């Protein structure tokens, strides 16, 4: 009975309290980091557009929304809201990718702490990095033709990042609870088989 319990405990510890194969997590971490870098580059490229290209894109999206949902407003009426929602959405996605990249990072001290603490570290890291990146991105826009850096946009971006990290924290919590219950059931099953 003790041998089975020790074996299961060893398996959980060696996989960072997740019960997943290390190579599987490492592959996912690499994929997530690549996606995060790609998304950061996409945000930078969108900010590098001059005012004419940026306005044309947001207006085209606004026209598509008005045409699809048959709003009583014109595309020009909702363009401002579309632009701000775009800020929130792109940084929510950025924060989700940052959180998952940090959570699955297997090197250093991060994977040595308990799952709940790792989630907290990951979401804090993601929100701080996303907010700082937003500030630097707005600064970068000061040097783009016709664009300007706005503190209000940093607030919208930061709010989007908060939405992203809250959503990811909740999902990670549910996944962690499911895996802990599965590991406990497996442990109890091995103990029962040892007794028999």
Give the tags.
196 residues; mainly alpha; 81% helix; elongated
Give a written overview of the molecule:
The protein has helices spanning 2-14, 22-47, 51-69, 75-103, 115-141, 151-195. The protein has one domain (2-50, 80-195). The chain is elongated and about 65 Å long. By secondary structure, it is mainly alpha-helical. Residues 1-19 have low confidence and may be disordered.
**Total number of distinct structural domains:** 1
Count every beta strand, where a strand is a DSSP E run of 2 or more residues: 0
Structural class: mainly alpha
Which range does the strand content fall in? under 5%
Distance between the termini: 10 Å
Query: Biggest sheet: strands, sense, closure?
Result: none
Please compute the radius of gyration using only Cα atoms: 22 Å
Net shape: elongated
What are the segments in which pLDDT stays under 50 over at least 5 consecutive residues? 1-19
Share of helix among residues? over 70%
| Mean of pLDDT | 80
- Output the helix-strand order: HHHHHH
Q: Tally the helices: what do you get? A: 6
SSE layout and pairings?
Layout: H1 2-14, H2 22-47, H3 51-69, H4 75-103, H5 115-141, H6 151-195
Quick gist of this model?
This protein is mainly alpha-helical and 196 residues long. The chain is built from 6 helices and no strands. The chain has one domain (2-50, 80-195).
